[in-house]
Every structure is written in structure tokens, then in C-alpha cells.
Design a protein that fits this description.
Blueprint: H1 11-37, H2 45-68, H3 70-81, E1 90-99, E2 102-103, E3 107-109, E4 113-119, E5 129-137, E6 142-152, E7 158-163, E8 167-175, E9 178-186
Antiparallel strand pairs: 1-9, 2-8, 3-8, 4-7, 4-9, 5-6, 5-8
Length: 187
């Protein structure tokens, strides 16, 4: 009697197919995790290249347009980025008038300000007198003790001086006659 041959089992092939299925499942799981992590967007290298090519074409097109319209484009860009310029002008912020020696109230000044002075020679016996104006800090410190130091007389009845310190100050005015002091700042 002939023995019936049993079919040979191919365990090697089954193991290979099993490994392939496991690898495929792992790849699918990794792809799902990656898609979830990127907010549901998957990476497609072909669409990325197409997107980059489109961006490059748009950039090249914009550059060609800009070259063809260089003066207009530059002028438009300059207008868009520059704020309208407003010319600053000297504006009176304080006015003090008096006769003789006085101290003003404390006031605040920026880094750049002016002191303008006027006097009247006829306000003093003899037709001339000293006008001295010192700038003093609110704490009593001397900032510019002789910002103005002049003799009021015919032909010398007013002028100005520019100061370059900021803070709270007062003016210490010494005079034997009448005077008007004006403080101006750029605004």
C-alpha cells in the first residue's frame, strides 16, 4: 500500500506573511498618529513640491512686476511705511512777568526747551539793569545758574537761550527792573 504523503507545511512562508502584516499594521498606526499630531493634515511630497513651485512662480512674478514698476512700487512702499511728518514748532508753555527778584513755580521741561526774555530799560532808574535767570532743579540743585546774564538797556531788550536738560525745574530771576520770561518747548 502506498502511503499517502501529507502535504508539507510551509511555516517559513506563514511567518513571512505574518511579519509583513504586522509591519503593515505598524506603518498604518504610525501614519494615523502622525496625521493626528499634525492636525489631520498628511504630508504629501508631491503636493508640497507643487505648493513650493507655485510660491516660487508667484515670487518670480512679483519680482518681475516690481522690476517693471520699480519707481512706482518704491514710492508706494515709502508712502505706506512712513507716518505723515508734522513739523514741530516752538510753543509757549509758561509765561512769567514781574519786577525785581523772584522765583517761579516748579514746572516740567523736556530735553530741549527755550527761555525767551524781554525787559524794559525805562522801568529802572538810570535806564539799565541786570537780568539774570538761573535754572534750578525742583530739589534746589543748580542746573544752569546763569542761563541768562545780561544788562537790560536800549538795544538789548530781549533774546533767547536754549536749554538741554529735562525734569522739574523753576527759574530764579534776579533783576532791578521789569521782565517777562517765556518758556517754549517743541510740539
Amino acid at each position: 500500500m502506498l502511503e499517502q504523503q501529507r502535504p508539507k507545511k510551509h511555516y517559513g512562508r506563514n511567518i513571512g506573511i505574518g511579519c509583513f502584516v504586522v509591519a503593515l499594521v505598524v506603518i498604518v498606526i504610525i501614519a494615523i498618529i502622525a496625521t493626528s499630531a499634525s492636525g489631520g493634515k498628511s504630508y504629501n511630497p508631491l503636493s508640497a513640491q507643487a505648493t513650493q513651485a507655485g510660491a516660487d512662480n508667484a515670487t518670480a512674478s512679483a519680482e518681475l512686476t516690481a522690476v517693471g514698476n520699480a519707481p512706482t512700487t518704491q514710492a508706494t512702499q515709502a508712502q505706506a511705511t512712513q507716518a505723515p511728518t508734522v513739523a514741530l514748532k516752538w510753543t509757549t508753555t509758561q509765561t512769567f512777568s514781574g519786577n525785581g527778584t523772584k522765583k517761579t513755580a516748579i514746572f516740567t521741561v523736556p530735553n530741549d526747551w527755550k527761555i525767551l526774555w524781554k525787559c524794559d530799560p525805562s522801568s529802572s532808574f538810570g535806564g539799565q539793569y541786570n537780568v539774570i535767570v538761573g535754572v534750578t532743579g525742583s530739589d534746589g540743585s543748580s542746573i544752569d545758574p546763569a542761563a541768562i546774564n545780561t544788562i537790560c538797556k536800549a538795544g538789548n531788550t530781549g533774546d533767547s537761550t536754549e536749554e538741554h536738560q529735562s525734569g522739574q525745574v523753576y527759574l530764579d530771576i534776579e533783576s532791578e527792573g521789569s521782565w517777562t520770561i517765556v518758556v517754549q518747548t517743541l510740539q
